[in-house]
């Protein structure tokens, strides 16, 4: 009697312990944009649990401001979704159709697509070449950039930066140096570098908290702030790995922000906000090069 009771008890204890250990892993496996799945198919007039989260999502990326604090799919939300759909070349249905929701669920940069309502498509510089839109790069409001006395920039990795991130970031700086007048050199943190790279998680003291695995992967500030933050909760890798985010691809994008480029809606461009896991996108595209040349008047 006694031994079997003891083993039942320990089996119970082990199962409980295993579950407790696995739970955080299981919840991590889901992307932090997963909540968008439950609103798929909804439209104006609906009231579906999760709509408030969609409003917060669209607010975070600049598509909504001062929204209602409920799950009502209202006019304001419909119009925000239309703007989002126009930006991403989706059919402007104003509904949370499957294509729109899938687009919204791709991991992305945390920098808003629209800042203070001023970087909408309308204010973007669009160049036409033989009738085709070939350029949709954008700058931050007020076109902040580095002064010509600051073309030799220094950068430092802050404490806690994993070693595996350093070479990919170095190569990303080299990519921009190869296409601009900038040079980048690594210095120690105490030498007050112009640019800093660090790994942060959740709320980390700026106004842009990270969100765990998936969702927002990184962000960086416009000139001359110099901060570039990776979300430490992502599965960071070098190259194309299932479920992993390529350190170098993300660095090339974020350095674009550090230099003054905002998001581009050219899917091919480095400054496009979304990047799927297991995807490598490390080389500047014509849109990125035209953008940086235009900002700094390089011929
Ligand atoms: C956006 O507007 C707020 C408040 O008007 C202002 O403090 C902030 O600097 C603006 N941001 C940019 C990037 O222009
Ligand atoms: C930068 O240019 C040099 C010289 O052309 C080349 O060897 C190097 O591979 C380039 N680096 C990157 C990261 O593009
Ligand atoms: Zn970005
Ligand atoms: Zn941050």
Detailed description of the structure:
This protein has two domains: about 70 residues, Muramoyl-pentapeptide Carboxypeptidase, domain 1, CATH 1.10.101; about 150 residues, 3-Layer(aba) Sandwich (Collagenase (Catalytic Domain)). The chain is of the alpha/beta class and about 300 residues long. It is globular, with a radius of gyration of 22 Å. A hairpin with a 6-residue loop joins strand 8 and strand 9. The protein starts with a helix and ends with a helix. A six-stranded mixed β-sheet has the order 1-8-9-7-5-6. A two-stranded antiparallel sheet has the order 2-3. Strands 4-12 form a two-stranded antiparallel sheet. The site of one zinc ion (ZN) has 6 residues, from loops. InterPro entries: M10A_MMP, MetalloPept_cat_dom_sf, Pept_M10_metallopeptidase, Pept_M10A, Pept_M10A_Zn_BS, Peptidase_Metallo, Peptidoglycan-bd-like, PGBD-like_sf. GO terms for molecular function: metalloendopeptidase activity; zinc ion binding. Its cofactor is Zn(2+); Ca(2+).
